[in-house]
Design brief:
The complex is a heterodimer of chains A (about 290) and B (about 170).
Chain A: H1 2-10, H2 12-28, H3 32-103, E1 108-118, E2 123-127, E3 140-143, E4 146-154, E5 159-163, E6 171-175, E7 181-188, E8 191-195, E9 208-211, E10 223-232, E11 239-244, E12 254-258, H4 272-284
Antiparallel strand pairs in A: 1-2, 1-12, 2-5, 3-4, 3-12, 4-5, 6-7, 6-9, 7-8, 8-11, 9-10, 10-11
Chain B: H1 2-19, H2 33-45, H3 47-64, H4 71-89, H5 95-118, H6 122-166
Helix pairs in contact in B: 1-2, 1-6, 2-3, 2-4, 3-4, 4-5, 5-6
Classes of the chains: A alpha+beta (about 290), B mainly alpha (about 170).
Chain lengths: ~290, ~170
């Protein structure tokens, strides 16, 4: 060991050169695949950080341009997406309308909503069909979800539809399950109330209320509302029945107006007088 | 100052190898800037450091062409060692001596390299040695002397300006 140290001290230069030469020769005599492998590993280890850095610089220089391009693309795709969503909603709506229309055997005139007026007391739509399309006042108006209202004014090429979501727009309804009859009236926001229901009647939350057909204006069997709450009225003789219409009155874009099968000149769509009459009949009933 | 001068020279020559070597070549005859780097480094830093530097630089060069992995490392470490030893005995202040030293080391390096590279077809190696290696060695010597002079002039200017600041 001492001899080695002495030799190394004395011939330090030559020893280091010898070591380097041996290392070089060792690399030279490696088999070709091993040489390639060593070179590949060494280059990977040495150049990867450099490559990352240079790539980063290259990326950074083109970042602004790419950012602008992507922003433009995002804007374009957002608009395109909105347009497609609109198409999808319209398609779904029309599909439901078509299905609804196929189910009916009465003549339904489709009409597009071209205007509306919602206030605290009444909701009126303007549709693009009128007397020229054989429409007349009091004709019932439907959506695929159920009864929506009736025509209150008819012009040659347009009409006004008063929605159920209005005061003085009661509808005679029948409970689909228990066949209990009552008068459905709008109270506030999306709350309707089924009135004139005796305390002994069978009405439960979730029951569907259909048009009763009484009066001959609206045909029997169309959905109008779903019972949401049943409580005993303060007088102890009747039930207080809250209901909700399945129709989204604020989002109506297409409606159907029923034109046939109804003797319009004789028809009565329940109004205040009819409601009073019904109530008196119910009171007199045993 | 000597370190600054050396590092500047090394940096410039390495940049020249990647940027200018092909542009200032005459056909196959081109200066070997990497070998110049090793030679200058060894001349200023001695045999051991020169050998190490040559080994590292040669190995890096070999990684680009692993068929002869170790060949450049071997030759450049030996060249660095020998140049370092030569520099210890006599530092070439004379331009002609410097040219001769650089050219002869480059030529020797290239001869051994070609023997390895062309083995066993030494006939073609002979043609290349005198057709390409010799003029390339001379070219490298000229470039080396020029680079050395430019850097020395710049270094002297820096030293003068610092000296004035000191006064």
């Amino acid at each position: 060991m001492h001899i080695i140290e002495t030799v190394f001290q004395k011939h330090r230069d030559k020893t280091i050169l010898g070591a380097l030469v041996i290392a070089s020769l060792a690399l030279l005599i490696l088999p070709q695949p091993a040489k390639l492998d060593v070179a590949r590993r060494a280059l990977d280890a040495l150049l990867l950080p450099v490559e990352r850095y240079t790539n980063f610089i290259g990326d950074y220089s083109s970042l602004r341009e790419e950012n602008t391009r992507l922003k433009r693309m995002v804007m374009s795709l957002t608009l395109e997406r909105e347009r497609l969503l609109e198409f999808r909603r319209e398609r779904e709506r029309l599909r439901r309308l078509a299905a609804f229309k196929e189910e009916q055997f009465r003549t339904l005139v489709p009409a597009e909503v071209v205007g509306h007026n919602f206030d605290r007391f009444q909701s009126v739509l303007v549709v693009d069909k009128g007397a020229n399309d054989s429409l007349r006042v009091k004709m019932p108006v439907f959506t695929y979800q159920g009864l929506a209202g009736r025509l209150v004014k008819v012009f040659p090429n347009s009409s006004w539809v008063q929605l159920l979501r209005s005061t003085n727009q009661p509808v005679s309804c029948i409970n689909k399950r228990s066949r209990v009859v009552g008068i459905l009236e709008w109270r506030r926001r999306d709350v309707f109330e089924l009135t004139s229901v005796s305390a002994v009647e069978d009405v439960a939350v979730g029951d569907t209320l259909l048009t009763s057909g009484f009066g001959g204006v609206v045909p029997k069997g169309f959905p109008v509302a779903i019972v949401t709450k049943v409580t005993e009225a303060s007088d102890g003789l009747t039930l207080r029945v809250d209901a909700r219409s399945p129709v989204d009155f604020f989002a109506l874009e297409e409606v159907f107006i029923m034109t046939d099968e109804i003797p319009w000149d004789q028809g009565i769509f329940y109004d205040e007088a009819d409601t009073a009459l019904m109530r008196s009949i119910l009171r007199e009933a045993p | 100052m000597k370190t600054f001068y050396l590092m500047l020279l090394v940096l410039i020559l390495m940049l020249m190898q990647s940027i200018a070597a092909d542009r200032i070549s005459f056909g196959e005859i081109a200066p070997d800037f990497l070998l110049l780097v090793v030679l200058f480094y060894s001349l200023h830093r001695g045999a051991v450091k020169g050998a190490f530097f040559g080994f590292i630089l040669g190995l890096a060069q070999d990684l680009g062409n692993p068929t002869f992995l170790g060949l450049n490392a071997l030759l450049k470490s030996i060249t660095g060692y020998l140049m370092g030893r030569a520099g210890q005995k006599m530092f070439p202040e004379n331009v002609i001596l410097l040219f001769a030293l650089i050219a002869s080391f480059v030529f020797g390096h290239d001869i051994v390299y070609l023997i390895f590279f062309k083995w066993p077809d030494l006939g073609s190696a002979f043609v290349v040695v005198f057709g390409v290696a010799l003029p390339s060695a001379a070219y490298t010597g000229v470039v080396g002397v020029a680079a050395n002079q430019i850097i020395r002039l710049l270094g002297a200017r820096v030293v003068r300006s610092r000296g004035k600041e000191g006064q």
